[in-house]
Amino acid sequence: MYINKLLLTNFRNYDNTLIELNKGINVFYGDNAQGKTNIIEAIYLSSIGKSFRTKKDNELVNIKNKEMAIIETEFTKVDRIGKIKLEILDKKNIYINGVKAKKISEILGNINIVLFSPDDISIFKGGPSKRRKVLDIMISQLRPAYIYNLNLYLKTIEQRNNYLRLIKYENKSEELLDIWDEKLAEYAENVYKYRKEFIEKIKEKIVDIHKKITQDNEIIRIDFISDFLNKEEYLLKLRKDRQKDIDRSFTAKGIHRDDFTIYLNEKPLNIFGSQGQHRTVLLSLKITELNIIYDEIGEYPILLLDDFMSELDNRRRESLLKNIENTQVIITCTEKFKIPEKEQKMFFVENGNIKNIF
User: Fold this and answer.
1) Mean pLDDT in each 10-residue stretch from start to end of the chain (358 residues)?
2) Quick one: how many helices (H) and strands (E) in the chain?
């Protein structure tokens, strides 16, 4: 899988820019704040339908003219050539091979990507929501039904929480909670099964990958943490904790609290891990994700490496590049560099202008 062309019109600081990529490594270099990450963001949008940098679509539009921003991405897969087009202004329109999508989730699975960005370094120290997001993005690319079930769960828990407040402040009947509980348990079971499946896939692969990167110096272990076991058991929890939920006005237990913990040599990474170990574990996780997607679809996803040089030292950069073959890589960095024995294309980026160096 690879992207052939990327056309940006009124997107961020690009007026009208056509970028032709090669199948191997593509390096975009230049000073900070010149528009390098905007290229990564455009590809991410073409894959996921949302930005990893902002929730406000109007921030994606070129501030000079405020006309519609357009991203057109032409890609090649083993079995087909495709095109994704996004139109962004007051709302977002998505076209897949010329056909307008009815919902954003239809974009998932067309262009598979794995993103490595500076913000990812903090996922192991940050709150559970960041780690759930990592899982959600991975799973949704391979199981489109996952995001549908997750959205149903989140909508239902919001409705249940609203009704909990009505019980507390307006003395509404508790009996209607049975309806919300049944639906919540049904959607939770579906989401839990997907997450459990993919955590198991990560566990299968990441141990050997991490041992290879650390020259057998570290053994990695991942524990999946969830309030959910099965539908029946979860319903019992909800009923047992009903009064507490009413008092708190929110649902305390459920898959919206899911998390995973990583251990290195049986010590929790978030407590004892050094900054270097955090970077190495993230590297192992991204390589694992690449391999899981390959196992699922029979071709490697596109690897997006934002601010690559600053986040990984020479040894870790070499470990990553040694572990990727037959993969299109998009790299942004501040310095020009050449990777020996790799097919590559070099671009210089300055104030929204891109010059092909070689």
Assistant:
1) 96 94 93 94 96 90 84 94 94 94 92 90 90 92 92 96 95 91 96 96 94 90 95 96 95 96 95 90 92 94 86 72 82 82 86 84
2) 10, 15
